[in-house]
Amino acid sequence: MVRDRQVDCSLAELYFRGQATQEALASVQQHEAMAVLLSRLDQLEDSMGSVQQAAVHAAEMQAAQQSLKATDTAYIRWVGGVWAAAGMRRRGGHCRVTRLAGATCLKPALGD
Question: Are 109 and 98 in contact (CB under 8 A)?
Fold first, then answer.
C-alpha cells in the first residue's frame, strides 16, 4: 500500500507539473501573440504616417499648381490687353500660346 501511495503521489505530482507547464506555455504563446500584434500595429501606424505625409505633399503641390495656373492665366490676359492697347491684330481674337519646357511663350497670331 505504501508503494501504491507513492505511485499515486508521483502521478498526481506529474499531473500538476504538466498542467503548470501547459499554463506557462499558453501564457508564453499569448505574450508572443500580443508582441506580434503590437509590432504589426506599429508597422501600420508608420505606414499611415507615410500615407498622411504623402497626401499633405500632394495637396500642397496641387495648390501650388493652381496658383501657377492662375498666374499664367492673368499674365496671358494682361499680354492680350497690352496687344490690344498697342493696336496689334490677333487672329480670331486669340493669341497663340506655346508651352516649352515648362515656360509659357506668347506669340501673336499675326499671319502665322
Answer: no
Residue 51: C-alpha distances to residues 1, 41, 59, 69 (Å): 74, 15, 12, 27
- What is the per-residue DSSP string for 74-99? HHHHHHHHHHHHHT---GGG--EEEE
Per-residue pLDDT tens over the stretch 48-67: 999 999 999 999 999 999 99
Report yes or no: 111 and 88 within 8 Å, Cβ to Cβ: no
The C-alpha cell that represents 83 in the structure block: 496687344
Q: Measuring CA to CA, which residue among 21, 22, 18, 24 is closest to residue 10?
A: 18
Which pLDDT does position 101 carry in this prediction? 46
Q: Is 1 helix (H, G, I), strand (E, B) or coil?
A: coil
pTM of the model: 0.46
Which helix H or strand E contains 100, and what residues bound it?
strand 96-100
Return the C-alpha cell found at 97.
500660346
Cβ atoms of residues 97 and 76 within 8 Å: yes
